[in-house]
Design goal:
about 90 residues, Non-ribosomal Peptide Synthetase Peptidyl Carrier Protein, Chain A, mainly alpha, single chain
């Protein structure tokens, strides 16, 4: 199972790659808000989720998420919870 550091690193890398493809050079951190100010649209987020599924082996959003996602750390938490559930 990936560690918390692995999950955070994979998510930050996927978001950073999407931002770079859009010409946005400011690197995200765990505290970066995930609203429209970040510069990513719904298609960008879908691509990030697909990329993370390949890296982490899960898509925690396929069953729905019942919490508000305000920062990248909130997204990390969703992935960590899904990995814990899968590990049983």
């Amino acid at each position: 199972m990936p560690t918390a550091s692995d999950v955070t690193g994979a998510i930050l890398a996927a978001i950073r790659e999407s931002l770079e493809m859009k010409g946005i050079a400011e690197p995200p951190t765990a505290d970066t808000p995930v609203d429209a100010r970040l510069g990513l649209d719904s298609l960008d987020w879908a691509a990030i989720v697909v990329r993370l599924e390949g890296v982490l082996g899960i898509d925690p959003f396929e069953e729905g998420v019942d919490r508000e996602l305000k920062t990248i750390q909130d997204i990390v938490g969703v992935y960590e919870d899904a990995l814990r559930r899968r590990a049983g």
